[in-house]
Predict the 3D structure of the following.
Amino acid sequence: MVAVVKPVIQVRAMRAKDLSTVSAMEVASYEFPWSHGIFNDCLKAGHPCWVLCVDAMVAGYGILSMGAGEAHLLNICIAPDYRGKGLGRHLLGRLLDIARWNGAERLFLEVRPSNPLAKTLYESAGFSEIGRRPRYYPARDGREDAIVMALDMAEGHIEK
């Protein structure tokens, strides 16, 4: 009988030494990626920046902005090789916990209409569409709207 070894999944604070890996993951994941400098600026500004590790390898990241009882999910990503394993749900759950621990009562985010998998994940966590930001995102044919979503932290949940 062969023993099945479950991977060790950990969410920890992002470090400066993670920035090259995070930036490469961003470039591999998005047509219009954040720059290395933006990630560095988020760390320097003290935003809650987190990485999800699988067996000590960075497999995803998430960045929040906090203030005045609110949080904003600025960026969340799982590396292409790790998608479809529930890691995005796990990371989102931990980011919701971090926002709560930092006193957030509501959490906001923007998502592209062209990213229905992400929108479905957010809806399953309790987020609701509250509006649109016209021409918010760069797109191949010009600009794409953003769907603005919000979550009342008292009602949000992530089912495991």
Observations:
- Residues 9-152 form a domain with the Aminopeptidase fold (CATH 3.40.630.30).
- The chain has four helices and seven strands.
- The chain has one domain: 9-152.
- The mean pLDDT is 94.
